[in-house]
Amino acid sequence: MTTPPRIYLDNAATSWPKPESVYRAVDRYQREVGAPAGRSGYTEASEVSRLVEQARMAVARILGVKDSACIAFCHNGTDALNAAIHGALRDGGHVVTSDAEHNSVLRPLALLAAQGRISLNHVPCDSAGRIDPADVRRALRPGTRLVAIQHASNVTGTIQPLAEVGKAVRSHGALFLVDAAQTLGHLPFTVDDLHCDLLAAPGHKGLMGPLGTGVLYVRPGVEAHLQSFRQGGTGTNSESDEHPGDMPDKFEAGNLNVPGIAGLRAGCDFLLERGIARLHTTISGLVEHFCRRLQQIDGVKLYGSDGAEDRVGVVSLNIQGYDPQDVAASLDTAYRIQVRAGLHCAARIHHALHTFERGGTVRFSVGPFNTAEEIAVAAEAVGEIAAAARVL
After folding, report:
1. Which long-range contacts (CB under 8 A, 24 or more apart) does 244-252 make?
2. Rounded-to-integer distance, Cα 46 and Cα 39, Å
3. Residue 328: what are its φ and ψ, rounded to 5°?
4. CB 148 within 8 A of CB 200
5. Is 147 helix (H, G, I), strand (E, B) or coil?
6. What is the pLDDT of residues 60-75, one digit of tens each?
7. Number of neighbouring beta carbons within 10 Å of residue 329
8. C-alpha span between 319 and 300 (Å, rounded)
9. What is the DSSP letter of 19?
10. Most CB atoms closer than 10 Å: which of 42, 49, 127, 141?
């Protein structure tokens, strides 16, 4: 029996495959360069310093940032979010977040609240996972220090109305942190569009870089109000035992993941050459076609926004008669279609979706290298599984 080709539809977890240029960049660094960043002055070390700065500039260009020093490299998106959250809340205060958030936001805030260091409000989301900016405005208090909201849901793909939220937070005088894990590299936008003070994202998802990479944007001047939660060597101001307070050194203690950053730079170059808006249009077309096919299948329940224009490349569903984990297992073993099932590290949103008790959803997530043929195979597979459930 011939094994079907692998169909990877788990790009919300990490993008795969990567552009060939990413593999080449990582391999070249490992084989030919191998020096640390900002630690020495020999030829290869100087090359690494240039490489890191070029990567920083590429991320800044994607975000519409003029000064690349506003971009700090982190270990991943979770690390970047923790740096922003713990850095902004060193003196406590009131925080507003939402029920749609990922655990990378929910858990640091829950810890600080349990320790009595912050007070915390969660605004609700609707059955598509969308928040209402009016709810955020009503939740703001005189002592609100931080508002932390995702740009798009990793469960439903729904894009949040962050421009309106950002304006309200800015006028209130609080800091606005955007979790762009599902949008940076997927959607064309700038930090000015969102009116944000802080933005965190992984480098291994939409930016097409390797795992172990993340970015944190800090609006100029905001770094003075943040505390670094990791201190150590930076290669600068070595005569002082105080950690530097300037960007990006404030959040880049220790050796950087230069192999990952080399790949990240190549991933950013790929996006800039292809055009993020054009890639998003292509993925939206695949998502729209997929959802149309799924809507015609009896027993399939879709979650999220009705229109592909209001979501990123994430489609969550359930099939009547099956647990989500069973569906994902069947897709993998019988069709070699790779998806994710469960709560997706975002349990609170499943109460709004009424999917918590059944163990979450089956999530398909489309990336730049998926094809219309793969989407058609996936839709056909879902139809066959649903048909088998009706027979049982």
Report:
1. 246/69, 247/69, 247/70, 247/72, 247/218, 247/223, 248/56, 248/69, 248/70, 248/71, 248/72, 248/73, 250/72, 250/223, 250/226, 251/72, 251/74, 251/83, 251/87, 251/216, 251/218, 252/72, 252/73
2. 9
3. -65, -40
4. no
5. strand
6. 999 999 999 999 999 9
7. 13
8. 5
9. P
10. 49
Eight-class DSSP state of 311 = B
Half-sphere exposure of 348 (CA within 13 A, CB side): 20
pLDDT digits (tens, 9 = 90+) for 343-352: 999 999 999 9
Opening angle at CA 168, ends 165 and 171, nearest 5 = 145
Token representation of residue 256: 């950087």
* CA dist., res. 198 & res. 205, Å (int): 19
Provide the whole-model pTM: 0.96
User: For 175-199, what is each residue's pLDDT tens digit?
Assistant: 999 999 999 999 999 999 999 999 9
Residues 112, 103: Cα–Cα separation, whole Å:
14
158 has a pLDDT exceeding 80: yes
Query: Structure tokens of 177?
Result: 């942190």
Buried b (16+ CB within 10 A) or exposed e, 304-317: bbeebebbbbbbbb
What average pLDDT is seen over the chain?
95
Burial class (CB within 10 angstroms; exposed 0-12, middle 13-18, buried 19+) of 229: middle
Tokens 């080449």, residue?
24
Helix, strand, coil fractions of the chain, as percent rounded to 5? 45, 20, 40
Q: How far, in Å, CA of 280 to CA of 366, rounded?
A: 10
Q: How many residues does the chain have?
A: 392
Looking from the CA of 24 toward its CB, the CA atoms found within 13 Å total 6
